[in-house]
Structure formats: C-alpha cells, structure tokens
Amino acid sequence: MVGDDRGPAGFSKEVWALFTLPDFPWDRLAPYKERALAHADGIVDLSVGTPVDPTPEPIRQALAAASDAPGYPQTYGTPELREAVAGWLRRRAGVTGADPDAVLPVIGTKELVAWLPTLLGAGPGDKVVFPALAYPTYDVGARLAGADPVATDGLLSLGPVAPKIVWVNSPSNPTGKVLPAEHLRKVVAWARGRGAVVVSDECYLEFGWDERNPPISILHPDVCEGSHEGLLALNSLSKRSNMAGYRAGFVTGDLALVRRLLEVRKHAGMIVPAPVQAAMTVAYGDDAHVDEQRARYARRRAALREAFERHGFRIEHSEASLYLWATRDEPCWDTVAHLASLGVLVGPGEFYGPGGARHVRIAFTATDARVAAATTRL
Predict the structure, then answer these.
(1) Nearest to 155, CA basis, from 130, 178, 182, 126
(2) Residues 316, 257: one domain?
(3) 47 CA to centre of own chain
(4) Domain count, the chain
(5) What's the CATH number where 372 sits?
(6) Does position 1 have pLDDT exceeding 80, yes or no?
(7) C-alpha count within 13 angstroms, C-beta hemisphere, residue 363
(8) According to the model, what pLDDT value does residue 2 have?
(9) pTM of the full predicted structure?
(10) Which of 33, 48, 55, 200 could form a disulfide with 218 if both were Cys (CB 3.0 to 4.6 A apart)?
C-alpha cells in the first residue's frame, strides 16, 4: 500500500527522491551536437568546457614516478600534499590562516558537491541553499541527501529559516560573476547567525579578468574576519592545471568540519589514488604553468568575445571564470540551434536555472585553431 508518507512501490518519499533525480542535462544537447558535427569544417565545441591543452609535463612525471603504488593511499592525503595546498592558499589566495591539517583531498570536486550535504548530515526537513543560476549539481546534492533544495540569490527572502548549508559560487558558473568581499562577508555573518555552514565553490578563483573586481576566497581575512568557523572552500585542478582526467581537488576551512568529513570518507572509501596525490602536490607547488594557461585563455576569451559581440550577442557579467554569458534576447534553444547551424556548440542557459532561459554559456577552453574557426564562422 502507498500511504500519504510513501512514494511509489512503498518507498519513503525521501528514498523515492533518489530515483527521481532530474535527467542529465547535457544529454539534451545531443541533436544539436550532431548538427554542429555536420559542418564542413567540423564542430567547434564551446559547450561543456573540457580542458584541451596538455597536462604540464612535471605533473605527468610525478604521476608516473608514483605509479608503483601497491599499498592503500591515505584518505587524509600525504603531508606533502596538504602542505602544498596550504602554501598555494597562502600564496595565491591570500588565506593567511591556511592550515595543512584542514586540507582534505577529494576525487574531483563534482563528487564533493554531490555528496557534501549527505556527508554533513543534511536530510529530510533541512534546506540547502544555492544561487538562482547555478551548477546543477548543487541541486542534485540536496536531493541525494533527501534535503530541500532552495535556489535563491536573496538570503533575506528566506525569512526566519535556518538552512543547513548555504552554497556560494564566486566566480560563478555559468555567469562569471564575481561577488565582492563585502557581499561575501554579509553572507558569512548571516549564516553564522543561523548556525548554517557556508560552502564556497572557488574552482575558478585564479581566472579573474577584471582587475577592478578580482575574485576573493571566502577564507580570506577580509571576508571571514580571521576565523574559518562554519566555512568550507573547495577548489579543483581540472581547469587550473588541465587535470580534469585526474579527478583531483580539495576541501578546506573549518578544521572541525574537515575532520568530520575525513571520518566519513574513511568509512566510505572516498580516497584519492596515491599517484594522483603525488601529481597534485607538484601542481599546487607550481604557479608558472597556471600563468601560461591564463595567458592562453585570455587570448581565446578576447577573440571569442569580439566575434560574438560582432555577431549580435550581448555579453553579461563574465568578469571571471572560463565562460562568456551571452544573449541575443531570444529563447536559449533558438540560440543553440542557430549556432549549431554554424558548427558551433554552446551550453543552453536553461541548464543552470529558469533565469538562464534566454542566455547561453560559451566556454573558451577550445584550442586556438578551433577558436579561430569559430570567429571566422561568426
């Protein structure tokens, strides 16, 4: 029997929610990809944003040198890795209180985003808040935990509600918008007053393009006022170091929260492979390859922005990250279809929330040759 508190087949509503996750959005792009592939000069794929440039040689060498790994790796990560990450946080993000003991490597940050509400104990009746235009996995993570997903850009609109988790994402995916320190400081104060954990997705932190409004970590003293209590920040090597295939990232911040995550991840076997940990250590210890990659992306960004604006697009936000947030003031799927007819594939803004229904997300992670092809077609 199915009562008021049961879903189909007798499952509880919370368990049934796990079987009713939204369709994987990128599957809907398949027919447009086929159209773009039919172009005489082939497809220019500016949709998913997959890195295409080589993984730096020192990182690959570190992976190979550590490939003889017969024993189990450390869930906590090696001391060398945690110190490398803490050093990067101090050096590149201005996190003066970066503590290697509060660094925990993860198997790519998408995994962490999806499971973090569960790992932090969110469940039925809890609210997980994230931006109105956002990476879809924030919503999925709340659903996997059986919690209530809440998409909003105005925390005050929640009234007296005390959410379990508040996600912030600056620089934003998909819009490239950067939240200034003052805004983030208000979010931190609001959440601390309600006992909520603030989780900051900072995967594009090193890709700011507007010197007047540079990205800032939630763990920066100008934001957190010297305390990491109730705060977590996550970052990834996928875009920074062209390591998307390695599945390598980390979470850091409140030491007590990190230790709680560590204990759960030990039990669940969520462990970054030892060779990948070695590669991560080298990647976070070197800034030169990131500066080189930034220069590549800056060239591609400038070329694509000029071409799309010349083609009649308006670029909004986009002051950071690896995307242009663009519109022709028409339904996003019409824009996707138009560009696919030119052999150019982009991401529909609708994937990120109803507010993106008239925008597309344009990645500039294609090679120089394919970027040049796109600009010519436009």
Answers:
(1) 130
(2) no
(3) 15
(4) 2
(5) 3.90.1150.10
(6) no
(7) 20
(8) 40
(9) 0.92
(10) 200
